[in-house]
């Protein structure tokens, strides 16, 4: 297919490719934990898988960042898709911890490769067509397609195991098999729709990786320096990390909770997939509604974030409470709503505290804080479950989220204009969990 002829055509291609990329991820999200447990893994071993995924993202996100400049956007997108396809195949056949570790490593490396090249391709293409054109509207549609693909995939992926006879271990692998087929469709779409508008940069893959690796210590040091020297930034990073812990509680313990409420793993996958799809969509809407809520609270960022923390904590308390499916589903979505609405407000505080010179480091610091919170949650959650049970784990995280609401009261009152950044837990970009 020929290159896009105008910005509208390029935007349509971006939206189509984004939806196709995240649809397979959504398919596997509701069943990953249930599949691992059906094949004999303990909750602690599942937590280890999530932790490995988070560590891979932390270690490789920056080192792989320059590959798209050296190799070109399209080859790196294809490599990421190929690794995701391989991971889906690995999940289908995995029957022990080692097999699942291999699958998660493939997911993590693939995620670091495809986290930015498609968006970069779009910006390059638009600027080649119309120098100086505004890319924000197209990137907004890109975010919507991301969330939509995840939500639709989660709903369908939760229903697929119910179509197969032969036991939970076989049925729960079906979404991964279907996701692998969709990955092939995505590869074909990339080959057809993604045309490079700029030549690759001169240089080698080894040099690009080395440059990215050298950026890791400085980025981490910059994040630490920002958090030490500025109290509001320190609070933003702390609150972001708590959000990561809360997401882990939902996505590590949620599948088992809903399977228990539904009565079986297959029915639990269907219910959890639906709940997750609704929660993804609700979080995306909440991210857009956060600034409006702040206006209703007299423009106070601190009051808004505190109220949202109470909402999130209440959702976790209800998840640990009565065994009523609809209540648990509403509570799960409530946490995602709180997280989704809080994220852009915290991002606005962060951007209001740094100059353009330090903005990239600040954004990286926020991503690092989210990832570190997720890793901490993955490591601690199985131990808490052993000591206090699943309900006790939800209540423990609820207390942590409620205490973070007190920390919100020390944020600047006016956080500045809200960022358009999407909430990681809702739209999958920086998810602590290895969601396919």
Short précis:
By secondary structure, this protein is mainly α. Helices cover 78% and strands 0% of the residues.
Commentary on this structure:
This protein is mostly helical and 436 residues long. The chain has one domain: MFS general substrate transporter like domains (Growth Hormone, Chain: A, Up-down Bundle). It is 78% helix and 0% strand. It is built from 17 helices and no strands. The protein has helices spanning 7-28, 32-38, 43-60, 67-71, 73-93, 97-113, 117-129, 136-159, 168-171, 174-193, 205-229, 231-262, 265-296, 301-319, 325-353, 359-408, 424-427. Helix 11 (205-229) runs parallel beside helix 16, helix 12 (231-262) packs across helix 16 (359-408) and helix 13 packs across helix 15 (325-353). The chain is globular. 55% of the residues are buried.
